[in-house]
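INTERNAL AUDIT FORM
Audit reference: QA-55
Scope: verify that the stored structure record matches its stored sequence.
Auditor: D.O.
Record contents follow.
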Amino acid sequence: MENQTTAPEVQSEQTETVVQNNTEATPQTVLTETEQPKEVNFKDLIPESFKEEKALDNFNNMEDFVKSYLHAQKLVGADKIPVPNKHSTEEDWHEVFKRLGAPETPEDYKYNLKDVELDQNQVQEFNKEAHKLGLLPRQAESLIKFYNEMNSNNAASQEEAAAQAQLQTETELRKEYGPQFSKRLDQAKKLAVNSLGSDFLENTYLKDGSRLGDNIKVIKAFSDLADKLSEDEIIKGDGSEYMTAKDIEKEINELTQEGSAYWIKTHPNHNKAVQEVLKLREMLNG
């Protein structure tokens, strides 16, 4: 019975020893809340010999770096165009524009603008500037179309404003002149055309949107001036010539004075003088 009692005690000691030995053989690391894995800094992964490379400053993690590398690999063998930087010259930029499709000279710009009327002098100046800026042909053509449409819209708006101003002027003058409206308006316009020319009157626009020839102040000024020049209506001659009735009568008297070519049939200028007097009398009689 003594042997049976002692055996279990030895066995227990061996078990405890084995447990202790196993614990010592396989140490376990337990991370606390303050001992988390450190985040890897991408900059630290760059070898010392490449740390000064400016091209690597744009990368903050390995994923972006790998993406950039794979993209660059896809471009290997392609027809690449270098992108100029702030140190590039105008020649560098022009080389890029040329490779993108810009023409060699300003004269090489060609446009498909069948329904657009262009001033060739203006087109030449535009082509020079377009070539200087490196515009591609389709960009230059799009700009011409854009400005042409814009100018057309502006011209239409200008014509509409001028028509409205003309109607307003006519309405006000009819109230002011009454039955004399047609006569005074005709006198004013004849004198204005004779003084300034029809093109200037029709193509000069004032700030209020009216044409110079339709502006109420201009019409009234020429109407008053016509009244001061003569009480007679100003009469239109050949072309753009205008004369008052008194001026016509004066010229007839000079041509028909005694001893003039008008009365001497054998005079070389007799027929000319007769025809001139006839024309003046026709003007005078309307």
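Auditor finding: record pair retrieved intact. The mean pLDDT is 76.
Action required: none
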